[in-house]
Fold this sequence. Notes:
Blueprint: E1 14-18, E2 25-26, E3 29-30, H1 34-48, E4 52-56, H2 67-70, H3 74-84, E5 88-91, H4 97-104, E6 111-114, H5 132-140, E7 144-147, H6 158-164, E8 169-171, H7 173-187, E9 193-197, H8 206-215, E10 218-221, H9 225-232, H10 247-257, E11 261-262, E12 266-270, E13 279-283, E14 292-296, H11 298-309, E15 313-317, H12 330-340, E16 345-348, H13 351-359, E17 368-369, H14 373-380, H15 386-389
Parallel strand pairs: 1-4, 1-7, 4-6, 5-6, 7-8, 9-10, 9-15, 10-11, 15-16, 16-17
Antiparallel strand pairs: 2-3, 12-13, 12-14
Amino acid sequence: MKKTIKxxxxxxxxVIIRCDFNVPIKNGIISDDNRIVESLPTIKYAxxxxxxxxxxxxxxxxxxxxxLPENTLLxxxxxxxxxxxxxxxxxxxxxxxxxxxxxxxLNNSDVLLMENxxxxxxxxxxxxxxxxxxxxxxxxxxxxxxxxxxxxxxxSHASNVGIATYLPSxxxxxxxxxxxxxxxxxxxxxxPFTVILGGAKVSDKIGVIENLVKxxxxxxxxxxxxxxxLVADGKKVGKSLVDKEMIDFCKNILANYRNKIxxxxxxxxxxxISEATExxxxxxxxxxxxxxxxxxxxxxxxLFKEYLEKSxxxxxxxxxxxxxxxxxxxxxxxxxEILTKLDAIKIAGGGDTGxxxxxxxxEKGFNHISTGGGASLTLLEGKVLSGIDVIADK
Length: 394
């Protein structure tokens, strides 16, 4: 069990909290502040307990100097000030005298947000490569380090693993909740335990499939990855996305776990991925050579519903169709609708799955929607999260 923010006396201490403020921003406007809102309980706890709060986060990717202005955390500082109902001091630097002076001027319960940690990637990817000197420098700015950025917990960066190497450390409430919901559910699920897997490629989820097929009662497969499984099962899928190098892997999974793997029996097809394309529903055995499957069909929705309705624990990772295009969003919407009506533990991965659920307005029907796509995938694979592994144990 990892130490948490509650295991430390924060009063008068400079507490660095690594948050995940990697939110969509266009022209200075935040279109989805969910990750900021999810960080509030940890930040408020630090404020209420007299900490001098130093917040850090990445935003986007920094490859060239042109990436800097559009990835500044200034809009996040403004939104945080509104949500906390108090001033958040913003420092547009990631190191140096201006940052150090601002930190040293903090009073108990003050809050400071420093600039995007990935600004340090501009010259040598110092943040993303977990540069030792950078991690040591950032650690020198505080007394205690709290990691609450689940979205980057699977990556070894200077702003998580680097700082935690040199400071007393713990996890925040968001990461604590993520671990409780994901790890404990996988390790001790209420059965029947069903997993819904979607997304584009099988190769992206080899580890997830290998790990969960051993513990789940059923795995319902949709999205682009289903067509590789269907080819492995001897079906023709026209121009659908097929991960050719993964066909043998899928054959092996089907051979060993046939009773657990549930594949689509019909699909919504189109000749191209666009709103303009003409669509048609077809059974799996009726695929034409010039069509591609872009969503699960109504018969598959009903088939999935049969398994979901008898499940007591459900984990969903990956949309079951190209939900960004309205013509191919129905399968994902219907899965959302079915799940919200069930009396079961329902957990959704981050990334596209979480975006789909939230955009379609079904978030209240889930016990938990993860804030980290890659990190939740890593946990589903049964692997260790490096940004959490480095945190001190109780």
